[in-house]
Automatic annotation (TrEMBL):
Residues 21-108 form the MaoC-like domain. This is Acyl dehydratase. Pfam families: MaoC_dehydratas (PF01575). InterPro entries: Fatty_acid_synthase (IPR003965), HotDog_dom_sf (IPR029069), MaoC-like_dom (IPR002539). It comes from the Bacteria. PANTHER family: (3R)-HYDROXYACYL-ACP DEHYDRATASE SUBUNIT HADB, 3-HYDROXYACYL-THIOESTER DEHYDRATASE HTDX-RELATED.
Length: 139
């Protein structure tokens, strides 16, 4: 059974979203689209001179996937807030799996409001992002 925002209860989970694997092409395309040309994400020599083994994904690329998870589930018009905290880097070659769980449901001004705990993990289980979405559960 698919859980939708109007019937969601505390403990319900959103359908997972998987993105990747992250390639160098993905990073270059994201840099161009976002305007974030930080060389740590696209220039191997720069990354290695900074002490990294390789370039790594922009944090905002993963954050966009968490936003996509929430809006795919609830719709953009129901999203009220999205916050995240970066907890680890996403290396080249990793696949990102985004998940969400409803942790609060309450009424405010005649509308159901949901708080959804969000997380992004890469293939080895490392959590790279944690966050929260506030979603209006009623139209």
């Amino acid at each position: 059974m698919t859980i939708i925002p109007t019937t969601a209860q505390v403990g319900d989970t959103l359908p997972e979203l998987t993105f990747g694997p992250i390639s160098r092409t993905t990073l270059a395309l994201y840099a161009g689209a976002s305007g974030d040309h930080n060389p740590i994400h696209i220039d191997l020599d720069f990354a290695q001179n900074a002490g990294m083994d390789d370039v790594f994904a922009h944090g905002m690329l993963s954050m966009a996937q968490l936003g996509r998870l929430a809006t795919d589930w609830a719709g953009q018009d129901r999203m009220r807030a999205l916050s995240t905290r970066f907890t680890a880097i996403t290396p080249v070659g990793a696949t990102i799996t985004c998940s969400g769980t409803v942790v609060d449901r309450h009424e405010e001004h005649g509308r159901v409001l949901l708080t959804v705990k969000l997380a992004a993990h890469i293939d080895d289980g490392t959590q790279t992002l944690r966050g929260e979405a506030k979603i209006c559960g009623t139209p």
